Amino acid sequence: MLRFNTTIEKFDKKGEKTGWSYITISSTQAKKLKTSKASFRVKGTIDTFKLKQMALIPMGDGDFILPVNATMRKALGKRQGDNVKVILAADDDKYVLSPDLMACLRDEPVAFSYFKILSGSHQKYFSKWIESAKTAQTKTKRILMAVTALGQGKGYPEMIRMNKKEIW
């Protein structure tokens, strides 16, 4: 387990990461968690915000970053330049896809077949989006949207774009 205090940073101009908020995990700190030069998952806390299955992203010089997204910053009440207390451990737990989504997909063979050929990260987009619903009604709506899109051979980004067009 790794414990340290750090500051939330923000990329100014850094390719596709421009504007990201993050914390840096040095190569020395990362080696205490896992001997890897590739991305790996961690669990723990930033202040009181619980982390699970969060990716540490390699930066090419041996250091890693842990993105701190808007949801996390809002929950923490923190932003760039603020100090945080970090506790991290390697998270080797296998991600469990939404049981409700999987049950519905099993009833729709075309959608299920398409879902199975998607990469694990794309399957997780659907699952995390569905599981992040705050009400049963929203969760049901999201499952319906996902199963419909998958049945049409559409991935997560295409589903979102398709539904934005219908709403507007």
Written description of the protein model:
It is a single chain. By secondary structure, the chain is an alpha+beta fold. The chain has two domains: 89 residues, Elongation Factor Tu (Ef-tu), domain 3, CATH 2.40.30; 69 residues, no CATH class. The protein is built from seven helices and seven strands, in the order βββαβββαβααααα. A hairpin with a 5-residue loop joins strand 5 and strand 6. Helix 4 packs across helix 6 and helix 5 runs antiparallel to helix 6. 20% of the residues are buried.
Secondary structure layout:
Elements: E1 2-7, E2 9-10, E3 21-25, H1 27-33, E4 40-46, E5 49-58, E6 64-67, H2 70-76, E7 83-90, H3 99-106, H4 109-117, H5 120-131, H6 136-151, H7 156-167
Major sheet strand order = 1-7-4-5-6-3-2
Mean pLDDT: 91
> Which CATH first-tier class of the largest domain would you pick?
Mainly Beta
Computed structural class: alpha+beta
How many separate structural domains? Answer: 2
Q: CATH H-level name of the largest domain... which superfamily?
A: AF2212/PG0164-like
Q: Hey, roughly how much beta strand do the residues contain? A: 25-35%
Total DSSP helices: 7
Helix content: 40-55%
> Radius of gyration, Cα only, in angstroms?
18 Å
Biggest β-sheet description: 7 strands, antiparallel
- Give the distance, in angstroms, between the N- and C-terminal Cα atoms: 48 Å
**What global shape is seen?**
elongated
